[in-house]
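Q: A reviewer asked whether we had any structural model of the full assembly, not just the individual parts. We don't, so I'm hoping you can provide one. Inputs are below.
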Amino acid sequence: MTMSNTGGRRRPPTIHDVAREAGVSRGTVSRVLNGGHYVSPTAQEAVNAAIRKTGYVVNRHARSLITGRSDSIGFLLTEPQEKLFEDPNFNVLLRCCTQALASHDIPLLLMLAGTEDERRRITRYITAGHVDGVLVVSGHSGDLVADELREAGVPVVQCGKPMGRGSKVSYVAADDRDGARDMVRHLLSLGRRRIGVVTGPLDSPGGVDRLAGYKEVLIEAGVGIDERLIVSGDYSRASGEAGAERLLARAPDMDAVFVASDLMAQGALTALRRAGRRVPEDVSVGGFDDSTAATESTPALTTIRQPYDRISNEMVRVLLAQIGGEDPAAVILPTELVKRESA
Amino acid sequence: MTMSNTGGRRRPPTIHDVAREAGVSRGTVSRVLNGGHYVSPTAQEAVNAAIRKTGYVVNRHARSLITGRSDSIGFLLTEPQEKLFEDPNFNVLLRCCTQALASHDIPLLLMLAGTEDERRRITRYITAGHVDGVLVVSGHSGDLVADELREAGVPVVQCGKPMGRGSKVSYVAADDRDGARDMVRHLLSLGRRRIGVVTGPLDSPGGVDRLAGYKEVLIEAGVGIDERLIVSGDYSRASGEAGAERLLARAPDMDAVFVASDLMAQGALTALRRAGRRVPEDVSVGGFDDSTAATESTPALTTIRQPYDRISNEMVRVLLAQIGGEDPAAVILPTELVKRESA
DNA sequence: TTCTCTACTGTGAACGCTCACAGAAGCACC
DNA sequence: GGTGCTTCTGTGAGCGTTCACAGTAGAGAA
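A: Here is a predicted structure for the entire assembly that you could use as a starting point for your response.
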């Protein structure tokens, strides 16, 4: 099935057309376009009027050709395909970053590096200078792609602490350890003492820090650590379910569990229900992230909110600063305990 | 906290460097780069060797400046912010389209038009020629943005049938009506006769077609239409829950329900459970989409699979063809009944 | 007057590529 | 030897910007 073709684009107006219309030179129009310094109010106004009249929009290719900047940035997701979009956090991050960039009038290029092949192609694309900088998000941040890009001179900001010790990659992260502490303190305040934990992947700083926070508080409180109450997962729903099952098997007297992601907590709820435990009556469950999964589960999850909107904004801010020549920076943002039904 | 800055990009090699290295002219290098017609095997080889040696990557800006193409395409999502990423279908579509484009070495620009302001800005950006074409996805496809873009001469492909009657926008869609027919036939084959429906938004062709399929089969089968068994939703989980509640109130003898999206079906399951109905023993539930929601619910949803991978591939194919000068086209892809636990 | 300074404006060159064109080389045919 | 054809190659122009530089006008000071 086909339809007749309409339209066909007209040649768009150039800076030349605007200059002629405004009765000034190209240079003046260019100056107005780029901040308007050293332009008389009269010229300024004439140019703006001409721009409105002609419907002029700058040709970014011509500009980029000479400035060397592309005025676009990449959003790089390194994650095997399946997990990629299961986690609602990626989506929120992507959405927030797109918006944050849009407010600077910078387009976002989405780059998915699931396979080694894709990864090579994308790295090549990036290092060729087709983007001015890259926002990197990877699930298990053991990934070194951010370091590699930085090594190649590309401005980079990663979401979450980088794994490489001594890595000089900029990053923005929530305060994982502090969040974990808050949650475990909350569970203690409910009178719980046999508190289990399903950790995140322990080859990632986020996973390690959340576990550290858990241990810290229990030791401080004089409850002590019981290794039977510690199992690890990989942030996926399935691993949360399996983790809770193992915990129940190893420590049937568990009266609370801190699960290091909401998605895993969803899985844990399933396992607990199947085992006949009521939440929160028999077992309190605390999640982490405050993703959409937290409100969708029954009971709704008490969790630690990661401020994804702020994280995104900071990532963009830090990246743009770096593109502007500033040094890499690390930003850690506070989390917040959100009480719902599960604990 | 700051860290010392490393690196700083070197000026990348140009076509000139490659030409010198290979002992040929710019023109010859350019020809090799663009398909290699009218180039001797000797020169071909020399150029390729030089490209490898210098690490040359084409400067897309310089190319675009002269060709007028940007060699990038936009992925436009017109949807209010909240709903945007609740629906897993958007994610799958985005992922598949990104990959389909990546295989053509075309970057995807993500554009979110939640507010009227964003929409204006993005339209301006697109019509300025910063992308060669646009893939449009909108939840309730009453949206006319695709038509507007097409009117402005921009190649466009929409996901799902466009609303505007007489619209000449290219689109790729699953066969909604046929999918609905399959599902209702399946419910009939289970011996169900009091089959309710929670429709999609009836200001969108998808919603209308699925309802039409439902009615068609019931009439064909001689069961007839009972208006009390028809309520409408908006594809959201909440509306599915509310819809199922209304159906139960109006037709307590309902023994099956066709819910026009998996997300709504999830909501319906919640409502049915609360009402004390067992699924599938008391009430069979059929969804639509085969999104991740279908396998995550308990019981897992019997549903109609929309072939999102094929839809994405077709969208990209049709769009590229259109950019290449071909006429707009409409593609309708078959759906498939996926039996799980709920019906 | 003349000089200096500031505020502004115009101009040519350049960014790295593609495209159209001209031309060379080889071959076949008259 | 001329003509035509095909296959290949090099060259100059130009895409729409920005940037550096030169230059003008007006104000204020000497």
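A: Points you may want to mention in the reply: Chain B touches chain A through 66 residues (CB under 8 Å). The two ends of chain B are 58 Å apart (CA to CA).
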